[in-house]
Design brief:
Number of helices: 8
Order of helices and strands: HHHHHHHH
Number of strands: 0
Oligomer: single chain
Structural class: mainly alpha
Distance between the termini: 78 Å
Strand content: under 5%
Shape: globular
Largest sheet: none
Radius of gyration: 23 Å
Amino acid sequence: MSRPPSVPRPVLSSGQNLTADRIQTAFRDEYWLELTGNWSETLPLENTLGIMKRIGKGVVDQFEPLIASSNFSSYARQTSTLKDAMFTEFCSRLEHIDIEDERYRSLIFKLLEATDDPAPTSDERNRRWLFNFCMKYVVELRNRKKIRDSQPRSPRGRADYYERPKNREATDSQLDHYP
């Protein structure tokens, strides 16, 4: 099997984020369009990224103690040794996961290969950039959920926001400006 065409990480301007649309634009080469049915007919990008994120969630859950023990909760700030171990586990899970359409497994392996710049002098952001995108998404989602879950819940939901406190009555002077 020959190596798929390399796909460099999209160049982003200041303030821009990597999105599914930008990823799809990066893969506009004829090879990828033919392989995926123009990313819509045969193997949609949204489904592909969804599978990658689902596998990534399992990997993050497995490596949670190591991520939590580091000084940084973001994926980007983890050590390259930990990222390499997570990548190896991701590939192992991809190999064994039950996927409804087997073409996705082959496609994801090709995407991983095409988006990895193995040159030792390359910018770290260019190495495994698609994998890193998915893992960053999963870790950020997990961090937001942790913050949300740690906040106390109101037993009444948000209804208390809209109700006037019972011990405070509006004075006539406060209501004078209303018709």
